[in-house]
Structure formats: C-alpha cells, structure tokens
Prior knowledge:
Order of helices and strands: HHHHHHHHHH
Oligomer: single chain
Radius of gyration: 31 Å
Number of helices: 10
Shape: rod-shaped
Largest sheet: none
Number of domains: 1
Distance between the termini: 16 Å
Helix content: over 70%
Strand content: under 5%
Amino acid sequence: xxxxxxxxxxxxxxxxxxxxxxxxxxxxxxxxxxxxxxxxxxxxxxxxxxxxxxxxxxxxxxxxxxxxxxxxxxxxxxxxxxxxxxxxxxxxxxxxxxxxxxxxxxxxxxxxxxxxxxxxxxxxxxxxxxxxxxxxxxxxxxxxxxxxxxxxxxxxxxxxxxxxxxxxxxxxxxxxxxxxxxxxxxxxxxxxxxxxxxxxxxxxxxxxxxxxxxxxxxxxxxxxxxxxxxxxxxxxxxxxxx
Length: 242
C-alpha cells in the first residue's frame, strides 16, 4: 500500500506526462492565455529588424497609393485593369496594414501576433508578385499615340498637304512634349516595379524571421516540459504538503 503523499506524487507525474504528450486542440490553442500573452522568450529572440521591415512596408504602401493615384489621374498612364480595379490603392493599403502588424508583433511579441504577421506576409509576397506582373503589363501598354495628331488624319484619303513652318514647329514641340510625358509615365511604372520587388523581399524577410522566432519558442517550450529536473521542486512541494 502506497503512502498518501506517494500516491499524490505519482498522480501528479501521470497527469503531467499525459498533458505533455497530447497536442492541444485548435479551439483550446486559440483560447489559451499563453497563445495571446506577451512572451519574453519571443521578445529576446526577435531582433529590431521587424521595426525596419514594418517601416519599409508602410513606405511602400504610401508610395503605391501616391504614385498609383498619379497614374490613375493621368488618363493615359493607367490601363483598363488599373482603371477598373484600382489595385495600386488597395494593395498599398494592405501593405500599410502589414507594416502595422509587424510593428505590433515586435512591441507585443505574443505567438498569436507573430503567427498573424507570418500569415499576412505570406499573402503580401503573393500580392507583390501580382503587382509586379500588373505594373509590367501596364508599363508595356502605356502609350500616347493619340497626341500630336490632327482630327483629319483618320479621314484624309488624299495626299497630305505640306505643313507650313509654323505647323511644323508646333508639331515638333508637341512630339517633344509627348516623349517627355511618356518617359515620365513609364518612369513611374518603373519605380512601382522596383517597389514591388522591394516589397517581395521585405515580406519574405518577415516570414523567415517570424518562423525562426516561433521555432525557437517551440523548442524552448518543449525543453521546459520534457526536462525532468524542472519538476523536482514541484514534486517536493506536493510531497511536503501531503
């Protein structure tokens, strides 16, 4: 017959081992205070890079909205895809949200926020690739062919008349302005292409750093639950109280 304090100790060990071997359900994980509470371990593992990456997210988002609005209001710098979907605006808003979440995951490094940041940045990488493709198509389709053309050019079937010196001067000035405007619109598209590549690199960096932090937290938690020496003070306390 075991003594009462021995039975209590054995029961405690059995309950702890059973709890350590079972994985928590998703519902229990979402409602767990540990899942949503700030982890000092994550704070020590995470570097200050999240603040820099979050600032880059917000910068790219603001430039997306600003430069995209310029293209949308130009009348000729945006294709029908941009005119119908306004993707520079809502993609820029998404990138700003990603940056805010990156800031929050560094200020309050809970497993919930870090996991949310990783998930959002995975989606951000997809958005960045899609934005690069869309801006490349828009840049290729940007054209100002309608400028410097007379209304009679499409309906004239006779031999064109020789333009006067004044008309030729106006035409050359118009062609120079068209070339400059086309260069400006394509330059804005080029900047947005570079920003899309930058955003892709930022999102991938956030994903890698977040996964490393979560893996480190998981290993640390597993080490605590599987280290037998850490349970000795608890067992001794239960035995003495019994």
